[in-house]
């Protein structure tokens, strides 16, 4: 989840909360049905299965966050079966036995159907939500409404009218609201894109398009909080002041752009390049072992030293390399890399020093 945006993390947590709450309520319903004097067989089977399924999906989501869409659709199928099976079972049972009234035996689950449809509207785009809502409504409302329309004496009772409104009029009202929901969703999506763009601009250096000091600080903070192993490399272009003095600052800016592009191209997906300040860059590499950190630093030095920089020719780079230790803070880690960089400068530049 570390590489996900704030919106994605919020959506992930929302789905996880939904699964946990529905699983918990299914457990409570199971317990209540089991302590009833004469529980129905359907009530003893459906809630426990729903509880196990939802809690299992919650565990699956925690272990495999990228499977969130599969989890959502699995949870919707589970909810659909949990609600539609009782609707058909009790309707057919009341239809087959004149001595049984549907309004007396049907459990109070009509509000759950409305909640399920609202969840579908919120979580899925309208193009996908509409057919799913129609399927949910058909499988749940058809047996109930058909029965009540045939049995007028039950329809005009207080419970019968409540069921008719819940399964008929209320859901039709929700369908009418879908176009408004789509418009609101588009507005939220536009705001999300704008927010993402602003965040990306805020964390990137305008000249090199790499992470700036503020954005790099966020990456480093997350790295330290994760507790994972990794290394940092502090890079400094040798004699960069001479370039600015000789060729001008515009050429100096071009050199920084070329340098950052070459270092970034030499990094793998687990590496992040940060412009730490001026001609100084910091590289954060996740999961790398101590013995491999210096080899990566040498590869970066070769990537920048074996090609000409237009229009100044060849350049060299010095670097300080260090790896995270168990008692490190971010300050101690950076201080150690800075000390190693200083030692590389004292040793004559154009080299990498591990400390």
UniProtKB/TrEMBL annotation:
The keyword NADP appears for this protein: no
Keywords assigned by UniProt, alphabetized: Membrane, Transmembrane, Transmembrane helix
GO molecular function: diguanylate cyclase activity
Domain GGDEF: 228-355
Cofactor(s) needed: Mg(2+)
EC number: 2.7.7.65
Pfam families cross-referenced by the UniProt entry: GGDEF
Identification of the protein by name: diguanylate cyclase
Organism in which the protein naturally occurs: Cellvibrio polysaccharolyticus
